[in-house]
Write a structure and sequence with these properties.
45% helix, globular, Arc Repressor Mutant, subunit A, Four Helix Bundle (Hemerythrin (Met), subunit A), two-stranded antiparallel ribbon, single chain, alpha+beta, Nonspecific Lipid-transfer Protein, Chain A, transcription, DinB/YfiT-like, 8 strands, 3 domains
Length: 399
């Protein structure tokens, strides 16, 4: 009787790696349906996923098929662990980095859109009509607008469309963007975010229904995919907000911030737990708000809502008075805010005040969800400068 043959597993040597499949494009395309159903072999799956990182048309088709499969197999409730999706994604990316990475400045928007979508897929049909009050700050007081959960998503869809238009994507408003703006004096053809929202609400079924979720999520996917293919250099592209413009990198942070804020509004309306963004993303949002404070302060001075700057002339680029903004907790840090003009240089030698705020509290202030008088802030120094900066932070908010 012959002896049993030895196995490579008995030798202690590593097992031989299977040779990767080399398949033609037409074959890989034909496997997309099986891949979406998780019916491919391990080698076929690897070949298809390798191809998806290189072929845009197949990647779009794979995304559509995966979405169709998701309709056939509704996901389980996320109430068990709302952070599960984030942990799984982080684990996957740690093991296998994306072939086409998302730029760092677009990652917060990608994450916040995914978190909001996870919340939306977990709510019932009736909850889409739950009342939500959009809140922001104008002049010296709060402003609000009543809508529904679906109306909030329609608002995000219409304003996110500003980024999409700058990237050459289809505008979700369509012909509605050609309407003349309100009588407040804004130029026709360049509506503000609030005017775009009102135009979308007028031109579509109102109140909106849960059907708005699909175009909003599709648009967010297209935006992230487009900036990823364009690379980090696209961050300098200007995005118009009607009365002002932001670089694409800052605009993506702005959209991430608003996505998180309105997700919190929805979560409150449907009694759903919702956590702040990841610390590294929250820090970027806070940094954007801190960088915009000097401009907001200057606009309030021009409107007569804040005390004028001292009479002494501060040349552009010269040191002027500054306020130290200390943000505590997750995503925090310190920023020197120039007080005399946006063009002046903030210098610690000319620091006249120091304000300390919790990171989430500062974001609620910048979102218009808490008044400057109610913001829990530690304050030392020039009281007038502190008041002006807190009101400038609240004035960053908008519908």
């Amino acid at each position: 009787m012959p002896l049993p043959r030895s196995s490579v597993e008995d030798t202690g040597l590593p097992l031989p790696e299977p040779a990767p499949l080399v398949l033609e494009h037409r074959v890989l395309k034909s496997l997309l349906g099986a891949w979406a159903l998780a019916a491919c072999s391990a080698q076929e799956t690897a070949a298809v996923e390798e191809h998806l990182g290189e072929c845009g048309s197949c990647a779009d088709e794979a995304l559509r098929l995966r979405g169709a499969v998701g309709l056939l197999h509704p996901p389980e409730s996320l109430d068990l662990d709302p952070s599960l999706r984030t942990r799984v994604l982080e684990g996957c990316l740690d093991r296998r980095p994306a072939r086409i990475p998302v730029p760092e400045w677009a990652a917060p928007y990608d994450a916040e859109a995914a978190r909001l979508d996870a919340l939306l897929q977990d709510i019932g049909d009736a909850e889409w009509h739950a009342p939500v009050r959009l809140r922001w700050f104008e002049g010296d007081g709060p402003v609000s607008r009543r809508t529904t959960v679906a109306g909030v998503i329609a608002h995000l869809l219409s304003v996110d469309g500003l980024v999409g238009v700058a990237l050459g994507l289809e505008d979700p408003l369509g012909a509605a963007t050609a309407e003349k703006t309100d009588a407040e004096g804004a130029a026709a053809g360049a509506p503000t975010p609030s005017q775009r929202t009102e135009a979308y609400w007028r031109a579509s079924h109102f109140p909106p229904t849960r059907a708005v979720r699909a175009p909003w999520r599709e648009q967010s996917h297209h935006i992230v995919r487009t900036v990823s293919f364009a690379g980090g250099g696209s961050g300098r592209l200007a995005v118009s907000y009607g009365g002002f413009a932001l670089p694409l990198s800052d605009s993506m942070l702005d959209r991430a911030f608003e996505c998180w804020v309105h997700a919190g509004d929805i979560a409150d309306a449907v009694d759903y737990p919702y956590e702040p963004p990841a610390p590294r993303h929250l820090h970027r949002m806070i940094d954007l708000a801190a960088r915009m404070l000097p401009v907001s302060l200057a606009e309030r001075r021009r409107a007569g809502l804040s005390a004028p700057a001292p009479r002494r002339l501060v040349a552009a680029g010269a040191p002027g008075r500054s306020l130290r903004l200390e943000i505590e907790g997750s995503g925090g840090g310190e920023w020197l805010i120039p007080l005399d003009s946006p063009a002046s240089v903030a210098s610690a030698e000319h620091e006249v005040a120091h304000v300390a705020l919790d990171g989430v509290e500062f974001c609620r202030l910048a979102a218009g969800h808490v008044s400057p008088e109610e913001a829990a802030a530690g304050q030392v120094g020039d009281r007038e400068a502190i008041r002006d900066v807190l009101f400038a932070a609240a004035s960053l908010s908008r519908m």
